[in-house]
Write a structure and sequence with these properties.
The protein has about 475 residues and is mostly helical. The chain contains 24 helices and no strands. The two termini are about 35 Å apart.
Length: about 475
């Protein structure tokens, strides 16, 4: 015989999880997956106390995983896509063009735009920061520009691109957690992301106007990067076909997985016939990611390639998505037990006493994501846990799931690099040489986005109704 959990039994697994992640991950740097499993064990003990059997809990976990499986398959296919886009030369060509756009007159603004372009192309904010971000900091140093402003603009641009890229892990993870669809999620994010980007660019334009044009503007690293990329790959307009296929698929609303696979196949063909790679290289790039040892051109010495280029091209492959999927499965185990035991229902019922409007719900979601981000310093958990908590509530309020997935990104993904103890904050500070709290005020998009999310929530602008849910209610 099962019973409904009381408030302590409902909230204590969440508290235990936050403590384990804050101490284990935040303080001791332990991997988050085992910590989530331990949280699931505690949630399991609570479920047993409530009268649920092990088979009941397994059923709850299986339900969560089965619902997420189509999106997880897309996540795996994204790894294939990135690997084939690199070996085809598509990503390297777009990166090269992005670098050549740099104009020192407005260095801070350009830092934002170029970092955004590279992140959209590659789907990785860290890759953008660790490569072109370093080059941009070199330019800013030569110009005696505001280094804190430049670093903040690089971070904001990188996370802007990461947020809107269909190749990004977090951009794919948010719809998984919220139950929305990838391209609908990306389109819906424009409501908050574009205004945040406009505010950012106005600030960066003003900040960069004081820069002098009379100094060295092209650091040796960036010149070497451009030269190396053009040596490794052949540039050809046909290399634009893979991204065009993705763009057309998104506009026409074709099924995501077949479009990604088709784009990957075209990219693989281009890699063989334009770049001269073997079929074995293409398959290896699709599974384990591109490796510079695959390049077999006369006069090219892989041993002399600088680390910045290696960071740009050593990416992709199905295996690159393993860490994201493992965290997702671990979190779904916790969420499955919490849902089956009725704990999430009790938590939501309690929180909904304070939620009177759509704006209140958006604000509650934002605060939950910020709490997870501050405690765990992990963007994946800042998306998955609040997503699982509020998914059903948005349905009950007749709100489309893409409202939730957008808010998860606005207040989860992009906030993490502003937290000094997060892995992202440590990475950025170490890579760009500017302390987190110094560049954070200049990473405008990273905190203006969730402010716009709250404003839209209370005004109703850009809030999508769940038409399916409404029609059911009317019937």
């Amino acid at each position: 015989m099962t019973r409904k959990p009381n408030l302590f039994e409902a909230f204590s697994p969440i508290v235990v999880m936050l403590l384990l992640l804050a101490i284990g991950f935040g303080v001791f740097g332990l991997n988050p997956e085992p910590l989530l499993i331990l949280s699931s064990v505690y949630a399991g003990f609570i479920a047993l106390r409530l009268g649920f059997s092990w088979s009941d809990m397994m059923e709850g976990i299986q339900e969560k995983v089965s619902l997420a499986m189509p999106a997880i398959l897309i996540l795996i296919s994204i790894g294939i896509l990135i690997g084939t886009w690199v070996i085809s030369g598509t990503i390297p060509m777009l990166i090269s063009y992005g670098l050549e756009l740099i104009n020192p007159t407005f260095i801070v603004l350009i830092a934002f735009v170029v970092s955004a372009i590279i992140s959209i192309v590659t789907g990785t904010s860290w890759g953008s920061i660790g490569t072109v971000g370093v080059a941009l900091m070199g330019i800013a140093t030569g110009l005696e520009a505001n280094l804190a402003a430049t670093a903040g603009a690089i971070v904001a641009g990188a996370y802007f691109g990461d947020k809107l890229s269909p190749l990004s892990d977090t951009t794919n993870l948010a719809p998984i957690a919220a139950g929305s669809e990838l391209y609908e999620h990306i389109k819906h994010m424009l409501w908050t992301t574009v205004p945040a980007a406009i505010v950012s660019m106005i600030i960066y334009l003003i900040a960069g106007l004081s820069v002098s044009n009379n100094k060295v503007v092209t650091p040796e690293t960036m010149t070497t990067m451009l030269t190396t990329l053009s040596t490794m790959f052949e540039w050809n307009l046909l290399l634009l076909f893979p991204p065009i296929i993705i763009l057309v698929g998104a506009i026409k609303k074709y099924p995501t997985l077949p479009v990604i696979i088709f784009s990957s196949i075209i990219a693989a063909i281009l890699g063989i016939f334009i770049q001269g790679f073997t079929l074995k290289d293409v398959f290896a790039s699709a599974v384990t990611g591109f490796d510079i040892s695959m390049v077999n051109k006369s006069g090219f010495d892989a041993a002399r390639v600088i680390p910045e280029v290696l960071d740009l091209v050593h990416q992709g492959g199905m295996q690159s998505m393993t860490s994201v999927i493992l965290i997702a499965f671990s979190a779904f185990a916790f969420a499955g037990i919490m849902t089956k035991s009725g704990a999430l229902e009790v938590i939501i019922e309690y929180l909904m006493k304070f939620v009177k409007s759509t704006g209140d719900l958006i604000l509650t979601t934002v605060l939950s994501c910020l709490t997870m981000a501050l405690v765990t310093g992990n963007s994946y958990l800042s998306i998955i846990v609040p997503g699982e908590m509020y998914k059903d509530t948005y349905k009950l309020k007749d709100l489309a799931a893409k409202n939730l997935s957008r808010t998860l990104e606005d207040s989860g993904t992009v906030v993490v690099p502003l937290i000094p103890w997060s892995s992202a904050g440590v990475f950025v500070a170490g890579t760009l040489g500017i302390p987190t709290l110094i560049y954070a005020p200049w990473a405008v998009l990273c905190y203006v986005g969730f402010i716009f999310a709250i404003i839209l929530g209370y005004t109703g602008i850009g809030i999508a109704k769940d038409l399916k849910e409404e029609s059911v209610n009317k019937a």
